[in-house]
């Protein structure tokens, strides 16, 4: 179990594309000169808390721009003072785009998130990322019911929001990496990963059926379960890949509660009928999505 977790964590942190580390000595030679290529450069300091928070968001780009017309570079601006002085860096982090001839095309100053970087890169250069096929399903309510009915499979249903730390970017977040690890590294075709964005109105029926009031929450439908809709629920504010693997492995001490969807649905319907109020459990999430 311990070795599995170590391998898992290493896999989830692996970047398969390339981000080149530059120095004062090779900056111009490496970043410029390749005809038709653009360079997105991250100037950071190892002592900068904002940099530490942003680095994973930048690193996620490596998998998305491999074999495109965008190169990714980073340079320690604290240690490489010539480059910092040349581009008038007075605070970290700094993100800049350059053309192949070294023309400074601008600095990014918006929200530091992977999708925001993608939007900016496309706006300035016209280069689009190459999104990988997702191994995490995002089904409709009916499709999810069909998935759960296959009792020979382990099914994980994660409820999250796009602004939660670790869950932000759907193509490279830890849950996607976890699904890829099981499918590719473990060659496991019997475990299905599902993700539900609770702030998306189209998922209101699923949110209501599962009675999700806190996120992130994960429901595990174990293979060969007695009842198809029987699951163990785990809620943890800092939920990560280790807890999810432990849940899959049957760690009962992590389980917040055990549920049956049919029982939840009957109870919810009865409450709605008695109160006379519509089921609007997803509306708070939807409002937050608009902020």
Automatic annotation (TrEMBL):
Gene3D superfamilies: Glutaredoxin. It comes from the Eukaryota. One of its GO terms (cellular component) is endoplasmic reticulum. SUPFAM superfamilies: Thioredoxin-like. Residues 266-291 are annotated as: Disordered. GO terms for molecular function: protein disulfide isomerase activity. Keywords: Signal. Residues 1-17 form the signal peptide. GO terms for biological process: protein folding. Pfam families: Thioredoxin. Residues 1-126 form the Thioredoxin domain. Belongs to the protein disulfide isomerase family. This is BA75_04539T0. It comes from Komagataella pastoris (Yeast).
């Amino acid at each position: 179990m311990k070795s599995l977790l170590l391998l898992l964590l290493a896999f989830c942190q692996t970047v398969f594309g390339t981000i080149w580390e530059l120095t004062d000595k090779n900056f111009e030679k490496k970043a410029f000169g390749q005809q038709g290529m653009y360079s997105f450069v991250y100037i950071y300091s190892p002592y900068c808390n904002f940099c530490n928070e942003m680095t994973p968001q930048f690193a996620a780009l490596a998998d998305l721009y491999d074999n495109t017309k965008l190169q990714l570079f980073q340079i320690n601006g604290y240690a490489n003072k010539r480059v910092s002085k040349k581009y008038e860096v007075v605070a970290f982090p700094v993100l800049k785009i350059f053309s192949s001839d070294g023309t400074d095309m601008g600095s990014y100053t918006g929200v530091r998130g992977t999708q925001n970087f993608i939007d900016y890169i496309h706006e300035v250069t016209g280069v689009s990322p190459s999104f990988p096929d997702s191994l995490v399903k995002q089904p409709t309510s009916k499709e999810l019911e069909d998935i759960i009915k296959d009792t020979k499979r382990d099914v994980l249903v994660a409820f999250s929001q796009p602004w939660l730390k670790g869950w932000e970017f759907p193509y490279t977040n830890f849950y996607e990496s976890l699904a890829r690890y099981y499918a590719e590294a473990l060659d496991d075709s019997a475990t299905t990963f599902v993700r539900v964005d609770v702030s998306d109105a189209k998922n209101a029926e699923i949110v209501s059926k599962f009675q999700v009031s806190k996120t992130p929450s994960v429901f595990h439908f174990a293979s060969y379960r007695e009842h198809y809709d029987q699951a163990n629920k785990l809620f943890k504010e800092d939920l990560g890949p280790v807890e999810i693997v432990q849940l899959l492995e049957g760690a009962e001490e992590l389980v917040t509660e055990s549920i049956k969807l049919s029982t939840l649905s009957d109870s919810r319907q009865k409450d709605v009928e008695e109160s006379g109020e519509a089921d609007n459990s997803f509306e708070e999430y939807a409002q937050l999505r608009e902020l």
